[in-house]
Structure formats: C-alpha cells, structure tokens
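hey can u run this one w/ zinc ion bound, need the structure tokens asap thx
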Amino acid sequence: MMSPGFTGSPLDRADRVRNDAEAYDALLGDWRARILGLDGLDPVVAADGGLMWHSVAELSGSEELILLGLSDGKPHFVALAEAEGDVFRSPAIWRALSMLPAEDAAIYGTARSLIEWHNGHRFCGKCGHLTTLFRAGWGRKCGNCGKEHFPRTDPVVIMLAEYEGKALVGRQSRFPPGNYSALAGFLEPGESIEEAVRREIHEEAGVFCGAVRYVTSQPWPFGGAQLMIACIVEALGDAITLDTDELEDAKWISKEDARAALENADSRTFNAPPSFAIAHSLLKHWATT
Ligand SMILES: [Zn+2]
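ok here u go:
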C-alpha cells in the first residue's frame, strides 16, 4: 500500500463532539489536552523528532481553538495563528517536513489547512459581515445573515504522461536547480479528473493524451487545503511544446532515470521531489511497477 505524505493521521476527528458544547467543554477542561506548538504557521520539531505540544495551562485564554481530534481519548487542539510572508518557501519548513514522522506531518497538514482556511474566511462570502468560528473550529458562521461556511478542499491533478516506457517531468523556474517533478494543475469547474489531466498536460507541454489511470491522492496544506490526485496518462506522442509561462523545461525520463533520482544516486539526471510530496510517491510507483 502506498503512504503518500500528509496521510495517516492517528487522530480520531471526533465529529460527534463538534456540535456538543458540553462534550467540547469537557475536552477543553481535560488536563491531558494538548495544544500544537507552531512558529507562525511553521511546525516546531520537538527534541524527540515529533511535533511540539503544549498543555492547556500555557494558553492565555484569548486563543481561538480548533479541535484536531482525539488520540486514546486525549484531545488535541491548535490555536488560530497568522504568518508573516511566504512561510512555505522557507528552508526551515522544508527541513521540518523532511524530519517529522508521517503521522505528525499528517496532523500538522490538517492544522495548517484549517488555519489558512480560517484566515481567508474572516468575512461572509454572502453578505460581507464578520464571521466567527463555530463547530469546534470546523466552520465559521456569519453574525449577520447566519450563513454557515465550512472548510473546503480544492482538487488538483498531478500526473505523469507515459510514452513508450518513458514519463514526462517538468520544472518551474522557482524550483531548486536540477529539480524536476510531475506536471500539475487545479481542476476547473465543469471538468472531470480525466479531462483536467489531459488539458493540463497539453497546456503545459503540448502533449496530447488519452486514457487516464488513477494512482493515489494526498492532502496538501499550503496555500489553502488541496487534494492532490495523482494519475498516469497515456501520451499519444512525445513531441514537447513548452508553455514557458508555466514551465522552464520538460523532458522524458526512463524508469532507470526515475529510480536513480529517487535514490539520490550520483548517476541521477535530475533531483526528485521531496518524500512528502505526492510527485515522489507517483514517480516511485511508476518506476517500480
Ligand atoms: Zn453573512
């Protein structure tokens, strides 16, 4: 079974207590309750290599909390937070994510997605009035028109086009030197997964594609909550016409090239995406099956 990044959270999401004020207060008053430690929106790695947690006693009382879930009955919360600048691009977060155990990265991903959603939904999309957090942090409610808003996940397709045993990878100019990844893009309204896969490959690399095969999915918590849907698609030819606004380069790689990159071998012809990115899981799946 594949285990893409940001999956495998051990927490019981405890939907049943989100609307139950009494049960929620009992969790908040539980001496075992833990609050996720964050640096802005970045994860903080504790001495044991996992996420840093604090006790409720360390709260000032003014925090707005989200109930992330329960583990052995022990409640886990995160407080809403703001970040300065483009924190995802910081080398610190990249390092932290490479170090965290998969379960902790999944908890962090959930927290980060929810915090970013709250930060972007302070005002009602229907009437423009202020909204307030409700349902233990799994929603916001408008103080004026009463409309309830719930966290959303945006679907993104990420795919390898395959032609005669080779796969298409590309790089954006903002990638570190030598890094290549699977092509990706947001699904648009009115599109199926298959249509989005074929459209994105054609837009970015000029390659026409046919049959699409679903491989796996993973949440991606940066810049809003996204669901990355990984696919392999049959290319109908190998001529590349780059959209240079999207990609700096694209090329066809062999399974041997992919394996060398994933193993970080000296013979590698490109650098693979980090292990917590679904492009890594997708390349590995393609190269080893
Ligand atoms: Zn409203």
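The CA atoms of residues 257 and 269 lie 6 Å apart. anyway lmk if its weird
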